[in-house]
Design goal:
The chain has 9 helices and 14 strands. The protein is an alpha/beta fold. The protein folds into 2 domains: 159 residues, Ribonuclease Z/Hydroxyacylglutathione hydrolase-like (Metallo-beta-lactamase, Chain A, 4-Layer Sandwich); 72 residues, no CATH class. The structure holds zinc ion.
């Protein structure tokens, strides 16, 4: 199956166009703007079939109504959030068939209270919950909720491809190296990310296997990370969720 196409928007967002078995039909994920999507779709002769929205922030929703009106397509969005243009409110565990793919809904609160991810054919569209080498900020939910959401994503099959909504990988890796400098996987992944960005390519998708090796927010149970964070003055023993909360606060203040 073809990979999803990244349409860059704003400074560092990606709007993903997801192909199906009939590759001209695409799902549009988190269109914060309509114009770059229309441009990408029309240049390639694609047929938008539906819109998937992960959460209510404007950089994920701003283009929804214009695209839905132009292409007369349904809009799937979390039932727990008020998102203009929603035609199908989705909840955890819901599965829906479309001409592009069958999608399964995972509720992953933390960044926002109603945030969802969409899973299809080992492709994960996770909005602002999981980033490569990082995770979303806690705007509405608690650290406990976000940690549980991330553990849920980390438990997906390792080959699952991870399509995040922002290109934050290189700056996230600076923090990852700060808290776990002995992890050579982070070093190698950073070299790869730099090569891709220098060539003008997205660093995404990553995979769940990659993230389990390099993402400190999925590694809260690892002794090497715990030991180095303690050397930096962090908590010596804590539950995974409390340790996650410390890491998330440090990342908020990190000047890498
Ligand atoms: Zn957001």
């Amino acid at each position: 199956m073809d990979d999803a196409l990244a349409v860059p928007a704003f400074r560092d967002n990606y709007i993903w166009l997801v192909p199906g078995p009939e590759p001209r039909d695409v799902a549009i994920v988190d269109p914060g703007l309509a114009e770059p999507v229309i441009d990408a779709v029309e240049r390639r002769g694609l047929h938008p079939a539906l819109i998937l929205c992960t959460h209510h922030h404007g950089d994920h929703t701003g283009g929804i109504e214009a695209l839905a009106a132009r292409y007369r397509i349904p809009v799937y969005a979390p039932a727990a959030e008020a998102i203009p243009g929603t035609t199908v409110g989705v909840r955890d565990g819901q599965v829906f068939d479309t001409s592009v793919a069958t999608f399964r809904v995972l509720e992953v609160p933390g960044h926002t209270r109603g945030h969802v991810a969409y899973l299809s054919d080992e492709r994960l569209f996770c909005g602002d919950t999981l980033f490569s080498a990082g995770c979303g900020r806690l705007f509405e939910g608690t650290a406990f909720q976000m940690h549980a959401s991330l553990m849920r994503l980390a438990a997906l099959p390792p080959q699952t491809r991870v399509y995040c909504a922002h290109e934050y990988t290189i700056s996230n890796l600076r923090f990852a190296r700060h808290v776990e400098p002995d992890n050579d996987d982070i070093l190698h992944y950073a070299q790869r990310a730099r090569r891709l960005r220098d060539a003008g390519q997205p660093t995404l998708p990553s995979t769940i296997a990659d993230e389990r090796r390099i993402n400190p927010f999925l590694r809260t149970h690892h002794a090497s990370l715990r030991a180095h964070v303690a050397r930096l003055g962090g908590p010596k023993s804590d539950t995974d969720a409390a340790f996650f909360a410390t890491l998330r606060r440090w990342k908020d203040d990190f000047q890498g």
